[in-house]
Amino acid sequence: MKVYQFIVFFGIVLIIYGLVNYYIFSRFIQAIPADSSVRIWAIIAFWVLAFSFVVARIRERAYPCDFTEVMTWIGSFWLGAMVYFLMIVLLIDVARVIHHFLPFFPQIFYADYQKTKLITLLISMGLITMIVGAGFINARNTKIKVIDLQIEKKIKGEKTLKIAMASDIHLGTLVGRRGASRLVRMINDLHPDIILFAGDIVDEDLKPVIRRNLGEMLKTLHAPLGVWAVTGNHEYIGGAKEAVAYLKAHNICFLSDTAVLIDDRFYLAGREDRDRSRFMGKQRKPLEEILKDVDRSYPIILMDHQPFQLSVPEKLGVDLQLSGHTHHGQIWPFNYITNAMYELSWGYLKKGNTQFYVSSGFGTWGPPVRLGNRPEIVSITLHLQ
């Protein structure tokens, strides 16, 4: 992505973010009496919360430190809370408009209107704290998704292949040593034949990963057929060249628009993320070119981070595609958006002879919160002929 394009994009995002926060703030401050001694502290606290994530992520690239990490955590929780504050404020404002034309609020609401607004604020804050807290606990309780699949192709040797697959790990400040340790332990406990990472292993900036030495933890992953990965959009956001080099140095093999024959039993193909063109100005190879020398009598497993255009691998005879990226919206109600954007936002789908699985992901981006879905590691047992 060119510098001016990044500045324009970042500027638009920042303006929208600022407007959303100002809208919430305008309703928030109305609930606190003008003569209250806490009013000035409430104003300061609100804007510290609102801009801590932005400041921390900018600072993290230049000078990561403990203070930056604390600010990142604070700002990340605010992102989750902001979504639900926005929903509540919008709901109240819509109700007020309806009440203006069709009065339905009880008169008691207006007996002490300032008190009513303050009580509404306190109830909203308590409710959102519980929602975000529950989402944080859910995001730290990774499940193992177990799937048995059949591929009707004859192979030599062992007829069963056990795959451990994870996507959207987002190693960094929020998914640090505890998260990496949980990932490694859960995958190793599955005793897989092969481990596949379908993109977004790191969360944009590589510095927190290096600072915590998370690569050394990844080196303890065990699988006879190796650990394989493809890039996701977040590798490109933070610098794919550096991220891939770091992960390769820690025993992860990357497939860059290539296909390899593994154990003389199956082909494993991997695509560069589709955002490669946006960040590097270079198009990834068409899938037809990647598979041009592949013997189609062998099972073909494909990793492609973003699950767009599922008809293409179906047409080209791919047996199984593994993807991630969507997080299935991560927090409700964004799952409705990902359901509208993708043919498959989460789970299993079969189109013709091609089977697809899109993972909800292991980690989180932005808020360290999941609502409406669970983080997962996928254990796939392939039964071959």
Question: Gist?
Answer:
This protein has 385 residues and is an alpha/beta fold.
Q: Secondary-structure map with pairings?
A:
Elements: H1 3-30, H2 39-62, H3 66-101, H4 113-139, E1 143-150, E2 160-166, H5 177-189, E3 194-197, H6 207-211, H7 214-218, E4 227-229, H8 233-238, H9 240-248, E5 253-254, E6 258-262, E7 266-270, H10 276-280, H11 287-290, E8 300-303, H12 311-315, E9 320-323, H13 334-341, E10 347-351, E11 354-358, E12 376-383
Parallel strand pairs: 1-12, 2-3, 3-4, 4-5, 7-8, 8-9, 9-11
Antiparallel strand pairs: 2-12, 6-7, 10-11
Helix pairs in contact: 1-2, 1-3, 2-3, 3-4
Describe the overall structure.
45% of the residues lie in helices and 16% in strands. It has 13 helices and 12 strands. The protein is elongated and about 80 Å long. Strand 10 and strand 11 form a beta hairpin. Helix 1 (3-30) crosses helix 3, helix 2 packs across helix 3 (66-101) and helix 3 crosses helix 4 (113-139). The mean pLDDT is 94. The strands form 2 sheets. A 6-stranded mixed beta sheet has the order 1-12-2-3-4-5, covered by helices on one side. It has a 6-stranded mixed beta sheet with strand order 6-7-8-9-11-10. The chain is an alpha/beta fold. It folds into 2 domains: 3-138, no CATH class; 144-383, Purple Acid Phosphatase, chain A, domain 2, CATH 3.60.21.
